[in-house]
Write a structure and sequence with these properties.
The protein contains nine helices and five strands; from the N terminus they run ααααβαβαβαβαβα. It is α/β, with parallel strands linked by helices. It has two domains: about 80 residues, Orthogonal Bundle (Methyltransferase, Methionine Synthase (B12-binding Domains), Chain A, domain 1), CATH 1.10.1240.10; about 130 residues, Rossmann fold (3-Layer(aba) Sandwich), CATH 3.40.50. The protein is globular. Bound molecules: cobalamin (B12). Cobalamin binds next to helix 3, helix 4, helix 5, strand 3 and helix 7.
């Protein structure tokens, strides 16, 4: 196995076996060996957490183990995140992000945030269990290009549909992006979202396409 693979597997194992110290050590090793922090986060930490998800779904792990795994993931993320190279993507974007009301799951949302931050975008993170009104208030305050919503439960997912309607009712001209395990493209379309991605690494390319499409539509409307 290559050194690259060894480090990825050390990161994944540290998350799965909830060893925060090992996770920190593997993260430092990744940096020392010049690994792209983005790979270490997405192919190491995030893949480890996906494995934890399977262990939870099959009742091998329960809530305490999952919480400890999340702590290990965050220990590694804290080390890797500041080393991510900022790439000034165009167009520049302002983004509001949060996990929908009733939903405390924030790991996926935080990974999305890390990728957008590395793209040099301005981010307003509202955290988790965010009341729908709070998204609307923040949009009025900062006039973001995109509102990114995360939901990990079928129940909280419905809040996305409501929030999209609330934004339209308030005539707030922003793009909406949805994601999280229970969401898929069909649901995103049904909710009237402007974009959907199934993983954090797809969010920046998706956001760029959404903004460019919306700019083209505005221009066409002006010229019509
Ligand atoms: C970790 C976890 C927890 C942790 C959360 C810790 C935290 N800080 O987030 C704790 C232990 C607190 C927890 C609690 C609960 N959980 Co839980 N949890 C999970 C678990 C095991 C893993 C989720 C995770 O972090 N995955 C790893 C990340 C990296 O993946 P991800 O979140 O999917 O994110 C990726 C993409 O979806 C996408 N993405 C995410 N957000 C966004 C947003 C945008 C805009 C875009 C574009 C993309 C995007 O990018 C991310 C990175 O690539 C899942 C099981 C599973 N298989 O998913 C259950 C799961 C989500 N939990 C579940 C449940 C039911 C609960 C509880 C109700 C359990 C209970 N009985 O108390 C509570 C809910 C509390 C609440 N009100 O929210 C259910 C939901 C079922 C459903 N369909 O409704 C699941 C699916 C488990 C199951 N099979 O039953 N949970």
């Amino acid at each position: 196995m290559s050194t690259h693979e060894n480090i990825l597997s050390a990161l994944r194992n540290a998350v799965v076996s909830f060893r925060a110290d090992d996770c920190r050590a593997a993260a430092f090793k990744a940096l020392e060996l010049g690994m792209d922090p983005r790979d270490a986060i997405l192919d190491g930490l995030a893949v480890g957490m996906e494995k934890v998800g399977v262990l939870y779904d099959t009742s091998v792990y329960f809530v305490p183990e999952v919480l400890l795994s999340a702590d290990a993931l965050y220990a590694g993320l804290e080390i890797l995140h500041p080393h991510m190279k900022k790439t000034a993507y165009l167009p520049k974007a302002t983004l509001i992000i949060g996990s929908i009301q009733g939903d405390v799951h924030d790991i996926g949302k935080n990974l999305v945030k890390v990728m957008c931050d590395a793209a040099g975008w301005e981010i307003h993170d509202l955290g988790y269990d965010v009341p729908l009104d709070r998204f609307v208030e923040k949009q009025i305050e900062v006039d973001a290009d995109i509102i990114a919503m995360s939901a990990m439960m079928t129940t909280t997912m419905m809040g996305m549909k409501k929030l999209i309607s609330m934004l339209r009712e308030n005539h707030l001209d922003c793009l909406t992006m949805v994601g999280g395990a229970p969401v898929n493209q069909d649901i995103a379309d049904l909710f009237g979202a402007d974009g959907y991605a199934d993983s954090a690494e797809k969010v920046v390319p998706l956001g760029i396409k959404m903004i460019q499409r919306s700019q083209r539509m505005r221009k066409n409307r002006r010229n019509a």
